[in-house]
What we know:
With 405 residues, the protein is α+β, with helices and mostly antiparallel strands. It has 21 helices and 9 strands.
Amino acid sequence: AMKLQSPQFQALFTPGLRSVAELFEKKNYELRIAGGAVRDLLSGMVPQDIDFATTATPAEMKEMFTSAGVRLINNKGEKHGTITARLHEQNFEITTLRIDVVTDGRHAEVEFTTDWEKDAERRDLTVNSMFLGLDGMLYDFFNGYEDLKNKKIRFVGKASERIQEDYLRILRYFRFYGRITEEPGDHEPSTLQAIKENAKGLAGISGERIWVELKKILLGKHVNHLVRLMYELDVAQYIGLPLDGNLEEFDRVTKHIQNLCPKPMTVLTSLFSVKDDVTNLDLRLKISKEEKNLGLFLVKHRQELTKAMGPEPLRPYQDFIMDSRESNTSSKICELLKYQGEEHLLGEMQQWTVPSFPVSGHDLRKMGVSSGKEIGAALQQLRDEWKKSGYHMDREELLSCLKKL
């Protein structure tokens, strides 16, 4: 049996957790850390959020917490068996062990159990199906720890059964594959077969849920391997990707973009050939307005807005920003530079501050230009001169320029 005593594990024992543990111990209810947090701890990472599992029912937990004067946070998890308690400024999400009675590929109806293995059995992947006692003891019914050490991603039990319980698990398989494995292409053939046979089930999953998973896949490892797989296994068409996605361009862009911290949409746009590809993605996945605009921007400008030859390669991008009337153009241009793999220019661009035009209508009035129309025309002329100078001319230079004009 394996016992974990790492500093990351020790660090979890806040005053809040100690109090929670004490309450459960007093009542003889078992309490263990579950799922993703166990996987992270075993990988030597600090878990982002921690889920707990227990043999106590929601009613027993409520009774126990209430009589101890602990505040319960009402979020709608109770019918799934989750109670959230707040102690010492910290929330604890604790879920009763359960078995799925009926599933429709999206939601499950559950009944409670005290059998840890039965609960582990309904989890998606072996690396997510482990429990950790508060004494550091590992409970691992499906060789999740072995798989984690060997960097293998496998479904718990039969892949097709797990997938049919919730079709989103197809994308979760890809996401964890991109997070944990070393090599692309290390899949069990039966798993790929199960994904292919069940891909159509993704049509019934909401766009929002799909987009959450897809974004993580796009920023993970092996992304071009995984997206190719989505096409080979018929997954792509059910999650809003174009049928004729441009996989060559996708390969080209993903080669250099991973280290540049791109937005998911920047990576994804390399699959798209036309504006409609962005619109169709939006119809299926309900992406944000900002994401949609970024996709449209990249499709439109990725070919013709490129660096200049000569001493000022950034100029075309800077001119574009200066001519733009929108507030977030700079951030779109940075995404475009990532897309184009221009790492060096991206660094320069991030250092560049958008200069503000030094002359105002007020300056021109002081010089005796009175009509609004003339002021507008003069400002435009000066702006053009300023632009030609690479935005270097100051107010004095521009105004003396106006005298010549």
